[in-house]
Amino acid sequence: MKSVLILNGPNLNLLGTREPHVYGSQTLTDVQQLCERACVANGLVLDFRQSNHEGELVDWIHEAGRAQAAGTLAGVILNAGAYTHTSIALHDAIKGTGITLIELHISNVHAREAFRHHSYISPAAKAVMAGFGVNGYPLAIAGLAQLAT
Ligand code: CA2
């Protein structure tokens, strides 16, 4: 059975504690449970991580590249948080590894401040999802399972 790596970037560990009108009231642990159920339903194994550090996210994308090359990884779902709008390093890591990656946002970034409208991740991503709330995570898992078959 292949795995799916879900990476969450900076401040997503605060989910459910503030700004519920934007991000909902579920915590990152709740989101992990939603993902666990979606993975079981789609025949995938979940690997769920969060980091506030850009370099750690880059290292995890490199690890994903090795796993995808070895045939053990279906792909990556990345909510890069604010690094979405700033990180050429994440863009280069995704391009450099050639991984299948879905960019995900809880909120509809295009309906928010102008600085959230540009993404360094989108040109390197296979697909982009935004605005489904935390239910976007299980939807992205189902989408990745479709892509992998
Ligand atoms: O909508 C998304 O998922 C974002 O990736 C979330 C990022 C934001 O910078 C992006 O523009 C859109 C922010 C994540 C921080 O999440 C918090 C949740 C609760 C309280 C504070 C921060």
**Cα separation of the termini:** 12 Å
Residue-averaged pLDDT? 97
Q: Which structural class matches the secondary elements? A: alpha/beta
Contiguous low-pLDDT stretches (5 residues minimum) are none
Strand line-up of the largest beta sheet: 2-1-3-4-5
CATH class: Alpha Beta
Number of helices: 5
**Distinct compounds present:** ligand CA2
Topology record:
Blueprint: E1 3-8, H1 20-23, H2 28-41, E2 45-50, H3 54-69, E3 73-79, H4 88-97, E4 101-105, E5 127-130, H5 136-148
Parallel strand pairs: 1-2, 1-3, 3-4, 4-5
Helix pairs in contact: 2-5, 3-4
What is the structure about, briefly put?
This protein is α/β, with parallel strands linked by helices. The protein is built from five helices and five strands; from the N terminus they run βααβαβαββα.
